[in-house]
């Protein structure tokens, strides 16, 4: 019997150092909204998404390559940019054949951390590309870290629910001995058919909906497989695998 | 209408820096087994429990004050010590009127961190003293951090379940806007009447039961109010309030 690879869930970027990243596929999870936006842009024909850690870098790179500079800080379009971190800002008629240069509060930061720690591979996951993520992880047959971006290092439930959705779909293919994964799966199974009804209880929902009215963003970010492609990090860019 | 104090759940010592400790009562939670052992020893008449961060310090202090040096590393009685971190090692006939000098892997370390960050008050909580903890927190009417000791900075579910038990009992007295607390409460409410049946799924259960056969410890640590006193930290010691 061949040994199953490990799967762990890391519920905050501040805990990433506890895991063996270099032998693992790291799934960057930032449901509200970076990894939902990345899936949306690539699904709608973007050539690539370049994740960067600052607004000046987003502007500089986008100018150099004739791309779209975009990003958010604390839930709003970042100062100095015209485009934000909403998956609905990037329909095909706008983004097709263009490159998005994106900076966000949590998701792009976690991706940079996984890069710095020499992850074996990095992909981006959210409900819009749930099946593509699961299919890839099963085929790879390597150790997996489900990396929740959280909110400024705090635990959040939407990223954990997505981790739970992945675990419930593919757990028979992995060795899972971690309370974070157990919790994520139980939380997801409990909310499974009513994630949208549960959403108003989340702190990040309040931030996005009550302050910015982004209920359509929330709906998109929590809907499985509406942008079912796989963003894989390669050579500085997220591209469709 | 008076403003309710805040309550947050910190699910790993590695996230403690995210919270405003200095204005809060910090509840140290290490269900398996430090805070259960502390409750047990004090309930059975120990004069005090002195938490220390190393075995040599436990030996040195216990010699000086004629106390009992005790502690564990990785689930076992620490090398050089005769007494460990089991709540069942400290019945009244052994511990009454003595001082326990205790060092553990996770709980005493978190307590030291809360001290270093100038917590307003520090108490120790586990299922054996659930009601005493809840009564105290409601009476204090101050901000609360439920600090889960976890396992070497990893999230664990038994500490989170205890946090959820506290939240479900006293939430109407606090302002709670944190996904960790929401998750803890949902997890607890789901397992509420079957925490012992759920325990075999926990990573720490395997460590303690399969490796060391400590099933009676597990039962004690998960039973509400069997040692219902309140350990409060004061001047280097945990004493009964």
Set down the secondary structure blueprint.
Two copies of one chain form a homodimer.
Chain A: E1 7-10, E2 24-29, H1 34-43, E3 48-51, H2 55-65, E4 68-73, E5 76-77, H3 92-95, E6 99-103, H4 107-116, E7 121-125, H5 130-140, E8 143-148, H6 157-170, H7 179-191, H8 195-198, H9 203-212, H10 215-221, E9 231-234, E10 237-240
Parallel strand pairs in A: 1-8, 2-7, 2-8, 3-6, 4-6
Antiparallel strand pairs in A: 4-5, 9-10
Helix pairs in contact in A: 5-6, 6-7
| Radius of gyration computed on alpha carbons of chain A | 17 Å
Residue share in β-strands of chain A = 15-25%
Instruction: Write the H/E string of chain A, N to C.
Output: EEHEHEEHEHEHEHHHHHEE
Please identify which CATH superfamily of chain A we are dealing with. Answer: ComB-like
CATH architecture assignment name of chain A: Alpha-Beta Complex
As for the CATH topology of chain A, it is: putative 2-phosphosulfolactate phosphatase
> What's the CATH class label of chain A?
Alpha Beta
Overall average residue pLDDT of chain A: 95
For the record, give the distance between the C-alpha atoms at the N and C termini of chain A, rounded to a whole number.
30 Å
How many DSSP-defined strands of chain A? 10
The count of domains of chain A is 1
Number of helices of chain A: 10
Report the structural category of chain A: alpha/beta
Helix content of chain A: 25-40%
Strand count, sense and barrel status of the largest sheet of chain A are:
4 strands, parallel
Estimate the global geometry of chain A from the Cα principal axes.
Answer: globular
Which chain pair has the greatest contact?
A: A-B, 26 and 26 residues
| Major β-sheet strand ordering of chain A | 1-8-2-7
List segments of chain A where confidence is low: pLDDT < 50 over at least 5 consecutive residues: none
